[in-house]
Each structure stands twice: as structure tokens, then as C-alpha cells.
Amino acid sequence: MRPALLTMVLLALQVWPAPARDPAVFCGACRALMEEVQYDVTKARQTKIKVGSFRINPDGTQERKKVPSAPSEALLTELLEDVCERMNDYRLHEDPVTKQKTFKRFAPRKGDKIYTEFKKFFYHSDAYRPLKSACETIIEEYEDEIFSLIAQEAHDLADKLCNENSDLCDTSNHTEL
Fold first, then answer.
1. d(CA 150, CA 143)
2. What does R_g of the chain's alpha carbons equal in angstroms?
3. pTM for the whole structure
């Protein structure tokens, strides 16, 4: 009896259709994800660490320099674990002329002056849940590509990942600035 039930369950899982991906949500999630990653990586690169020798020169000075720190894989992994929580800072925006729907950031970042005032009035809703879910799916599928783009110090991370590496965004409806 049990093997037959197990077989039926496995068969049902194989036949059951996967939920359809909404291309607008996945494209918006990809662009929002890469915007947040680029912001965090840029912020991490702005921190400087002291490097140099511990040798003391005859005049009593030490040669030490401050150089920009490079984001480590551990930092990037931690960053990717938390980035999807910020998808509630984005909302769906429809261009009045082209009627194209995109997700745009409307919330201030944590370091901004208005952030404390904004958090008093802002509440978290479940409206961003599809964007968050798409963000998590993109990270699962393209984590290696994201790490590679950051290691290459590529510019326009969103275009590189969302258009070139993954084809999550349709390039035919994007216009040049």
C-alpha cells in the first residue's frame, strides 16, 4: 500500500504544473536585487583598511597606508542573505506614456536623514511578497553569476545579469538613455 501511495505522490509532483513566472516581476526583482547589491558593494568598497609593515623606520615612523577593502565571499554571501528583505522598499510604477511597468525604490536608505521619520509612518505589507519570492529565486539560480560580476568589478550589474546572463528582462522594450 505504501509503495503505491509514494509512487502516486511522486507522479503527481512530476505532472503538477509549476507556477508561471511573471516576467515583469522577475525582471523588476532582478533589477532591484542588483541595484541593492551594487549599493552595498560600493559602500563596502568605501571602507578602508590599514596595510603595511610593522617595521619601524630609524626616524620612529611606520609605513602604513589605507587602501579600499575588497568585498570577501563571506561578506557577499551575508549580503545576499539579507538583500531580499529590502524588496518592500520598491513599488510598482507604470510609465504614463509607454504603460511599461517597472519597480522603483521609494523608501530612503538606512543612512539617509529622512530614514528615521520615514520608518515612523511606513508599515510592511505583504504586497511585496511576489517580488521578494522572485528575488530569492534569482539568488538561488544565479548566485555564481552575481559573485562573478562583482569579482570582475563590472559596471551596470543589473544590465549584465538581467539582460545578458539570465535573459530575465526583455531587451526589446528598453530604450537607451
1. 11
2. 22
3. 0.69
